Amino acid sequence: MSVTIEDLQRQVSDYLQADEVERVLRAYDFGAKAHAGQHRMSGEPYIHHPLEVAQILADMHMDSQTLIAAILHDVMEDTRTAKGEIQRRFGKGVAELVDGVSKLTQIPFDTHAEAEAQNFRKMLMAMSNDIRVILVKLADRLHNMRTLGALPPDKRRRIARETLDIYAPIAQRLGINTIRLELEELGFATLHPLRHRILNEQVRKAHGHRKEVVDKIRSALKRRLRQEKIHAQVMGREKHLYGIYQKMRSKGLSFDEVYDMFAFRIVVDSVDDCYRVVGTVHNLYKPVPGKFKDYIAIPKSNGYQSLHTVLFGPFGTPIEVQIRMREMNDVAEAGIAAHWLYKSGSASERSGAHKRAREWLRRIMEMQTTAGNPQEFLENVKVDLFPESVYVFTPKGRIVELPRSATAVDFAYAIHTDVGNACVGVRVDRRLSPLGTRLGTGQTVEVVTAPGAHPNPAWLNFAVTAKARSNIRHYLKHLQLNEAAALGKRLLVRELQLHNSSYDSIQPEQLKKVLTETHLGSEEQMLQEVGLGNRMAPIIARQLLDDWAAAPQPHVKPADASAAPLLIRGSEGLVVTFPKCCRPIPGDPILGFVTAGRGIVVHHQSCTNVAEYRNHPDKWITVGWETGIEGEYPTNMRVEVTNQRGVLAKIAAVISDQQANIVHVEMKDKDDRYTTLKFVIEVRDRQHLAQVMRRVRSLKHVARISRR
N or C end: fewer C-beta atoms under 10 angstroms in the chain? Predict the structure, then answer.
């Protein structure tokens, strides 16, 4: 049955002033006229939808501005109503809220995913200005989910997936439990209707058998609390279907194993009573070791506070108990919306949910400045949305919340971006540990930093948090561009030398002309494009010399290229790569191939992958090794040995004695007599490798050794 304006009026009159109620009614009249003649897919007048959204928010006791914005949230998108008119009639605050909730329709996108990601980005940015935007958006999504039946099946599934992936986790992050549970149930029923129906039937069957047990346990808890003179409300708690389904999937449990737990909530008047209740229930039933959690002393990131414990029940089944104050219970159900449940500032400050939500939004906004595009940003936020948390301490005792499986690198970035970028080591409980160390609750973590240190690409293999990953990527992206510009300049200098010219002699007017013709914004961008392989150095060089015939010939003759080889220094970083197919090392004859987006890929001249490029001289350049090149380079070493115990250990010891490092080793039985060992080792140059191979070859059980 649809909500009427009279129903909404009665509801808001309970907590709003008369003049505020009048403004809500005026907004309804305005919205009804703006949407006149419009109908939803179900056939009902469109104004019913914003009215239902306002009613959901009225249940949360939201202020009049939010209710008005809910009633008008679609008028800017679906009618000719301008933001200025809304501002003139209802004030700037309402106009900004409506604008924040309105969808992005003016900008064309190539894909639906891109449009969804950009729309989500805009919504979060609007949230950072006024957090009520997301409350209207969540209520809007909740009513849309309630009325999905009128839509085609593919659209229903897409909206349900988006709800479970984005909107339900946001509601959870903001602590709005009532909306989260309904969004999850509706999304689950739409996305997996058969699973939902089967689980629902199982719960209904089990419910009858459980009622008597639940009543007995509740009576026992109440009786013991009365004996201890603790005033408390004891409630049985039903598990919702999506929660049961998620636990069955994630832990591989059967329905009976998940549902065979009785859940209760005990609500008391003070924090002292919360801890007294823990002692009381632990005296009544034995606690399960390791299952006590104190979210009062250490609240969750969404402001949730409660004590959790699991007990051995009287019928051999576990009893899960949540213990909290009344204000904590309000925050657990309403989250940041509890901020508006109280007129006094003190109660809302005690909840902390609003403050924590703003802190989360601040982190999200910081993250979006480093994201390369809206879709990368959306993926980062998805990672950040529902962490199962661990709590670790700084040396000064500050608590830092991190997702489960977070590492020391994640901790460093959680402290500050600059700390993460400069970290070189970490002490976990005063012991030096690798940066990839996974952290556990209760550990004390100290980050060791060094001036001039910078993120390592390998950190992306174990960094978990969105903040750490986005900042590492952001740094590497800029590092690659800087390296690309330096390489691009070297390539252009080399090409210009082939034309008996130099880069310094290029006239500014000619450079400006080339930038205009190539649609490049600056000299730096031109050099980056050349270094990344997106523009060919021979073509740009000719344009800079104004030596461009009507039919340009970008091909570079091998003879010309060999006259001035590009020298590899080993410090080019991300724009010069050495592929795994041949793993060239200093001293090897090499060829460089210009690859779009990757710069120069350096192959051994005998590499089988080189053959296909031989007929495309415009794709490759002659390269050589710089004299005195430093560093260590991975290369392959293949060793055939007789099957003898301990032979691998002997070879590894010899390699180590020769100051070479083993990166990877693989063993494969060739036949009953021989085994092939494939090593990837790091050496300084060809001479160093020859020295290692000579020593390995001298071992008794080595039959054959080669690089391939």
Answer: N
